[in-house]
Structures are given as structure tokens and as C-alpha cells.
Design brief:
By secondary structure, the protein is α+β, with helices and mostly antiparallel strands. Helix content is about 45%, strand content about 20%. It is built from 8 helices and 11 strands. It has helices at about 5-25, 30-65, 70-95, 115-135, 165-170, 255-285, 325, 330-355, and strands spanning about 105-115, 140-150, 155-165, 175-180, 195-205, 215-220, 240-245, 250, 300-305, 310-315, 320. Strands 2-3-1-5-4-9-10-11 form an 8-stranded mixed sheet. A hairpin with a 5-residue loop joins strand 2 and strand 3.
């Protein structure tokens, strides 16, 4: 892809402008905003600069190739640079291609049992454990905000905040219906059952202002249910907040009512922000439908087949025969394939834009 020089110059001009304004800025809010933009632009500017240097060097080597004494050496270097140039252009193109503004955000992870009764709750528990183990390998922190346990184990619903760099960017394609095919522990006849759980991954963005008016919410306190014994919540400290205009309900069931209110309000902002994101996505042009999928929570995205030990992602036609490893949190092969597919789609968009 031959990237227009005008577009590359535009990036460098903006980067240098931000650097100059950072040096002169005295207002704290402006300094923070400029620093954030500088951090976002620097990788792009570095890549654009590297590409420009490579292109200049290619022109210099072509001139040297006309010199009989330098032709052999220049020819070798020219071939090496020409081989490397497409990768440099692809790197810049990916950085220039429109990407999710929330790519580096932490996320709220929701896992809910779907069809399948007790087996669905057990599977929801398995999925939450899979994501928790994966988070641990990346140094992310997982904090459960609320959970409703299944009667035979697992979860009817579990909501957790996953904090770390790039959480949403890695997990955003996990939203959808996950289907499991296996013999439940309670099945005496050895028959394979199919059940499902839904996963939702929402970006947690700290600096987004979402207006929530007092008259638009109803706050209820109640006694949460737990695992029993010492885990039983003996006071009405759990909090449920209902956002009346949208019908969104959020809960938190820690021991402190004050903590629960703060957590529930934070989760409400996350959900209202996600509604805004979805509305913007729906309003965008339908010229290109990503093969990765829309993130529609009703879309069946993946099947976990235990008898055959395989995992199939239906959006990109990927099948892995490593189910035990995947359930232990080794999901990078799936995530990497989904991200690569998304990158290819974004590059196709950019290529169409440049003609």
C-alpha cells in the first residue's frame, strides 16, 4: 500500500505542533490533554519517520547503483530495503487506520448462564475461571463486583472489573454467546448436552462524563445471597440501582453499603457509555461488515466441544484442538486470530480510502 505523503506529513505536523504546545502550556488540564495526545501520536510519528528514512535511503541507493564501483554493495542494500519496505508501510497503515478509542481501557466483564439450567451455570463458571486465569498471565487485576451462584455450582451471573493496560482491546471480541457441548456431571446416561452462556465485555473509561440525574435512578438495598456459612451477608448492605429512562439495573453486594453504591454507580456509567458506543456503531456506514462480528450479545460466536477436545470460533472459521489448554486460560491463539482479522479489515478500509 502506497500511503499518500500528504497524510504522513499531516501526522508529523500535528505531532510537532503538540510537542511545541506542551512546552508552552501552563494550564494543568491542557497539559494532561496534550500529554495524552502526544503519547498516542508518538508511535505513529516514529513509524512515519522510519518509513520516510527508508524511502529516502532507497532513493540514495538507486543513485549509487549507477556508480560502477558502488553498484554491487548498493544493489544488496537496495534489495534488502525493498524487501523491508512493505512491512514498514503496513506498520504505518495499521497505526493510521481508524481504531477503537477504548483500545487501552480496562473493562467490565459479565458472564451469564444461558440455556441449559445447572449445566449452563457450571459453564459460565468455567468461562469466568478461564478469563480470570488469562488475566493473571497478563498481570491484570480481576475484582468481582457482583455474583449469583448456581444451585449446582458455577454462576447464574458474575460481573467483574478487569483492570490493566489494554484489557478491552484484547477481550472486546469475546462478547456474544458461547456454546458448550459435553456430558454433564449429573448425566447418568452419558449423553452429550448443549448449553450456553453469554459474555459481555464493556470498556471502563474513567474520564468520560456521563450525566446521571438523581431523579432518573432508584436505589434499593437488600440482603445478598452467597455461598452460605460465613459468606452470608447478614445486613441489607447490597445495593441495586435502576436507571429509569433505560431500564438498566446494576448491583453490588460487598459488605459495605457505601462501597456498593460507588461500585454500582460506576457500573451504571459503564453501561450507559456502552449504549452510546453501540448507538454510534449502528449509525456508521454499513459499507463494510467486519468478519469478526459486531459484538452483538445474541450472536453465537464460539463452540467448546469437550468430547472432541476442540474450540471453534464461528466468525473466522478457526478451529483449535486444544480445548483443555484454552479452558485453563491459554486463549491468546484465539484472540490473536480475531485481532489479526480485525486489522486486515481496517487495512482494507484504509486501502479503499486511498484508492
Amino acid at each position: 500500500m502506497r500511503l499518500p505523503q500528504a497524510r504522513l506529513d499531516q501526522v508529523l505536523d500535528r505531532f510537532h505542533e503538540v510537542e511545541a504546545r506542551m512546552g508552552a502550556a501552563t494550564d494543568g488540564t491542557e497539559i494532561v490533554r496534550l500529554s495524552k495526545e502526544h503519547a498516542e501520536l508518538k508511535p505513529v510519528a516514529d513509524a512515519v519517520g522510519g518509513l520516510a528514512r527508508a524511502r529516502d535511503e532507497i532513493e540514495d541507493l538507486r543513485a549509487l547503483a549507477d556508480d560502477p564501483e558502488m553498484a554491487a554493495m548498493a544493489g544488496d542494500e537496495l534489495r534488502a530495503l525493498n524487501d523491508r519496505l512493505p512491512e514498514l508501510e503496513r506498520e504505518v497503515a495499521l497505526l493510521l487506520a481508524p481504531c477503537d478509542a477504548d483500545e487501552n481501557a480496562s473493562a467490565v466483564l459479565e458472564v451469564r448462564a444461558g440455556t441449559g439450567g445447572d449445566e449452563a451455570a457450571l459453564f459460565a463458571g468455567d468461562l469466568f475461571r478461564m478469563y480470570s486465569r488469562y488475566a493473571s498471565t497478563r498481570g491484570w487485576r480481576v475484582e468481582v463486583d457482583s455474583a449469583t451462584e448456581g444451585e449446582a455450582g458455577g454462576y447464574k451471573e458474575v460481573i467483574a472489573t478487569v483492570t490493566g493496560d489494554g484489557v478491552f482491546g484484547r477481550l472486546k471480541f469475546e462478547s456474544g454467546v458461547h456454546r458448550v457441548q459435553r456430558v454433564p456431571a449429573t448425566e447418568a446416561g452419558g449423553r452429550i448436552h448443549t448449553s450456553a452462556a453469554t459474555v459481555a465485555v464493556l470498556p471502563e473509561v474513567e474520564d468520560v462524563e456521563i450525566e446521571i440525574r438523581d431523579q432518573d435512578i432508584r436505589i434499593d438495598t437488600y440482603r445478598s445471597s452467597g455461598a452460605g456459612g460465613q459468606h452470608v451477608n447478614k445486613t441489607d448492605s447490597a445495593v441495586r440501582i435502576t436507571h429509569l429512562p433505560t431500564g438498566i439495573v446494576v448491583t453490588s453486594s460487598e459488605k459495605s453499603q457505601h462501597v456498593n453504591r460507588d461500585k454500582a454507580m460506576k457500573n451504571l456509567r459503564v453501561r450507559l457509555y456502552d449504549m452510546q458506543r453501540q448507538a454510534k456503531d449502528a449509525a456508521r456506514s454499513d459499507a463494510r461488515k467486519s468478519q469478526v462480528g459486531s459484538g452483538d450479545r445474541s450472536e453465537r460466536i464460539r463452540t467448546y466441544n469437550f468430547p472432541q477436545g476442540r474450540v471453534t470460533d464461528h466468525r473466522i472459521g478457526l478451529t483449535l484442538h486444544s480445548l483443555p489448554q484454552v479452558m485453563e486460560g491459554e486463549i491468546d491463539p484465539v484472540l490473536d486470530a480475531l485481532i489479526a482479522e480485525d486489522q486486515a479489515a481496517r487495512l482494507a478500509d484504509l486501502e479503499a480510502e486511498f484508492g
